[in-house]
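Journal club side-thread
Mid-discussion, someone asked how the predicted structure for our own chain would compare to the paper's figures. Pasting it here so we can look after the session.
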Amino acid sequence: MCQLLGMNCNTPTDICFSFAGFQARGGLTDVHGDGWGIAFFEGRGVRVFLDPQASSTSRVADLVRHYPIHSVNVIAHIRKATQGLVSLENTHPFQRELWGRYWVFAHNGNLHGFSPELFGQFTPVGQTDSEHAFCYLLEALRRRFPSGEPGRSDLFAAIRELAAEIGAHGEFNFLLSNGSFLFAHCASRLVYIVRQAPFARAHLKDQDVSVDFSELTSPEDRVAVVATTPLTDDENWTVMEPGSLMMFVDGAPVAMGPAATCAFIREDAAAHRGDALSASGA
């Protein structure tokens, strides 16, 4: 399973602490050694770092870890290849322009038999199912809203429908942002935490690193962090419901109406569930 990391804030914030633990999952504390990437929104621009090398040994990752880039929306990804070569063009997150803004996308999972026709507005550069899904999603949004970006409620509803459609082909956990907000879709596994006053101390699971956020923040700051699994071992992370879409704005989740999509159930989990039901006589 690939690893996802997202951050959404109400004021520009660096992600150095969370990235320190996240970086270790790329070949040190986990097996994801097929590349990594991170994107920082700065105004209408995006600063993107990609490397097909394992993040735990990547000098580019070391640069990012020690370079306090401040952003209100960040998306990072550590890859465990399922489709496509281990190469730069297949490294997430992917970036495209839609409605005069950059959009960034990263996916965790594997889509089977997903090869819908694309009409040339968005074309994959690499061979991954992830980039194909991203291009299809943006193309569908442009067709649905040809006059420009819709309101947030309409956009949320459209992305929810597309997440369910694409998710019918397999595991489709993803993070998506255009710099104004962060979408998080949980097909099987995602967690999040909102850090706000009163701020406390936190310790990483994957590195022996702690930080006291009260020393680094102001009382008005609010930061939401989304990850595949919790990054710290002394904070209460909220588990997202499998088969659900969330939108984060200004460092907090925002209710946008119906959120149900398409949950992914692993075959081994389904088999275990069936065995349990048989044993119970149900």
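Post-session note: The chain has a mean pLDDT of 89.
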